[in-house]
Q: What sequence folds into this?
């Protein structure tokens, strides 16, 4: 065995996704072969996304490091790794050998420090690393050979890696919902989540004429390189739109994973999820165009409030108003198309819905619409005519 080769006893596990291995490895050896890409958006092209792991939280690493000094320190949950098939060899003796890969083709070789991509457990591993990026030998005073149990997936595509990361972290830790929805964009299989993500990307980035252009925080935090404020999160966008597409998005995703297609909705069901059959027919561009037209009519109705994103107290461009508008879209759309659910409603048709709404740009203040769900509810009641702006001012 070479110094760049590690062999560990493993147990082979078979599940619907495929086979993977469970084993144990010393922290020292794991640091030697592993790395964690930081998920970031610098380009819109999906093939340029650089990994699927969250940025390192140094505060959390420090807490774990302090925990390592405790006499009863333990990490019972497995670190999840993805390893290229060229770097792994499973023997008949139940041992898994991990090693670097050398190729004659440029860019295909894999060095020893790039053997294992960390899908989950980055912070635990970082707690063992010193400022120079290597194993911190001062920890040998506490644990001569601290071992970590690992879950190893071999030969996973990037979308499968993304799915495992999202599933593990949704179940165990608080992860930005916007990041999780963004990861859905990597999936090869169709789903309501992926469609909503792609529509968010299109309206946020593809066309400068879009009323939502550069207004959506794709990862839940400010997008690098954008000076203007982004008043909406991708999570707010996806969770609002998905209600118009699917009564059970997880079930739809499972259906597509099985190679099947959801059944078309009846007319009665379309009153609850009016974009359902558009989605099943893969007319995602038409859904995006309906949203484009709808929010353009809103932009045209209240151009000052819509444009002044930075104005303190202006709630029109923000989440509460957006969520209320999305709830109202179902009513407005059906009122326009009536029995032609699936037809693209025009900007002018949506404008007619707001024509008699007696609300000025100056009325969209946090004083009239309180923060939180109460403000969203009040905004929705204003749109539906249940309350007037004068009612809200008097409350």
A:
């Amino acid at each position: 065995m070479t110094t760049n080769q590690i062999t560990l006893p493993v147990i082979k596990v078979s599940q619907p996704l495929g086979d993977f291995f469970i084993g144990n490895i010393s922290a020292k050896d794991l640091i030697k072969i592993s790395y964690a890409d930081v998920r970031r958006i610098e380009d819109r092209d999906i093939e340029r996304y650089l990994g699927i792991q969250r940025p390192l939280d140094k505060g959390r690493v420090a807490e774990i490091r302090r925990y390592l000094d405790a006499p009863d320190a333990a990490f019972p949950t497995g670190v999840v790794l993805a390893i290229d098939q060229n770097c792994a060899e499973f023997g008949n003796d139940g041992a898994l050998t991990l090693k670097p890969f050398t190729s004659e083709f440029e860019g295909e070789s894999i060095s020893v420090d790039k053997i294992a991509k960390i899908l989950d457990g980055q912070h635990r591993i970082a707690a063992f690393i010193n400022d120079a990026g290597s194993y911190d030998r001062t920890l040998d005073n506490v644990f001569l050979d601290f071992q970590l149990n690992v879950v190893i997936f071999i030969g996973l595509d990037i979308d499968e890696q993304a799915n495992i990361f999202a599933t593990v972290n949704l179940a165990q830790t608080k992860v930005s919902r916007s990041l999780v929805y963004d990861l859905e964009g990597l999936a090869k299989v169709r789903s309501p989540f992926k469609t909503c993500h792609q529509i968010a990307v299109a309206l946020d980035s593809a066309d400068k004429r879009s009323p939502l252009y550069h207004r959506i925080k794709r990862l839940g935090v400010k997008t690098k390189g954008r000076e203007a404020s982004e008043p909406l999160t991708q999570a707010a966008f996806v969770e609002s739109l998905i209600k118009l597409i699917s009564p059970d998005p997880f079930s739809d995703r499972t259906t597509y994973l099985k190679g099947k297609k959801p059944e078309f909705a009846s007319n009665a069901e379309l009153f609850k999820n009016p974009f359902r059959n558009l989605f099943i027919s893969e007319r995602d561009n038409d859904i995006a165009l309906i949203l484009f037209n709808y929010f353009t009519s809103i932009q045209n109705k209240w151009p000052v409030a819509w444009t002044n994103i930075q104005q303190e107290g202006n709630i029109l461009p923000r989440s509460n108003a957006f969520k209320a508008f999305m709830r109202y879209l179902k009513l407005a759309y059906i009122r326009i198309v009536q029995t032609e659910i699936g037809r693209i409603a025009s900007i002018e048709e949506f404008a007619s819905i707001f024509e008699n709404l007696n609300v000025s740009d100056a009325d969209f203040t946090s004083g009239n619409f309180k923060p939180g769900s109460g403000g969203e509810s009040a905004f929705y009641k204003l749109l539906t005519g249940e309350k007037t702006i004068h009612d809200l001012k008097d409350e």
About this structure: The two ends are 77 Å apart (CA to CA).
